[in-house]
Amino acid sequence: MDFEPPGFGDFDRVGGFGSSMGAFGWFGVVFMIVFLLIAGLIIFSIIKAIGQWSHNNKQPVLSVYAVITAKRTHVSRSSNSNMNDSFSDSSSTSTSY
Prior knowledge:
There is one protein chain. By secondary structure, the protein is α+β, with helices and mostly antiparallel strands. It has one helix at residues 22-58; strands at residues 74-82, 88-96. A two-stranded antiparallel ribbon has the order 1-2. β1 (74-82) and β2 form a beta hairpin.
């Protein structure tokens, strides 16, 4: 006959899921799944980028002749920001040929 003091029931069912993992055990499982998903996405992106780079390097280099028809003679840009006036920001750009 096993004796348990009153009020000290199943501590292994703290998470309420009926398992012996407890509340922090589920966090560890979910954390590992999310970590593996993110790591998998990063690895997939790197492999995909390397494949795209390799595909681009296999393409022929195009030599195309171009004729310059005009050039910019004067380019100016100004930007004003005032933090005291409710984050207002203004900018202007002008190009002369």
